[in-house]
Amino acid sequence: MSWSKVIEPRSFRARFAGFWADFLHENYRNPEEVAVTFGVRYQTALNWWQGVNRPSGDVVALAGRPFQDFLEGRG
Fold it and tell me: Would you say which domain of life the source belongs to (predicted)?
């Protein structure tokens, strides 16, 4: 079953920054480590860490299977 049939897309989009922040907290020590891992500026990593905004698709793809597993565990 596809995600679009399980989760309403607008709701998922609205909650995604929080999901991403939770994933980062579980897998990285701090925003500095996030910045280095994903090749972004510290401020971007801090915004993700705080759930202020969400990454683009290429960054999510870099997170790979661990992020997918994280999301599936929240279902």
Answer: Bacteria
